[in-house]
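pasting for ref
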Amino acid sequence: MKKLIYQILWVITGIFLGALVAGIAFLMAGAVIAFLLFFYIPLAIAGAIFGWWIGPIAWRKIYVEGVRGKKYVIKK
């Protein structure tokens, strides 16, 4: 259950990252409405894919390999 929640949080973080990049580009483009359809949505989807990809890698590093310390390692 903890791993699933961790994965979902990484996907949400990826969506926010994509939205942030799209928002910055949106402001730089002069706030064109068509920009939302062609950049905002694809960047948010790309962010979700990034989160789905990086989530298991981060899980393995933190909770299996114990990069942040032994107190975070899952004991079996």
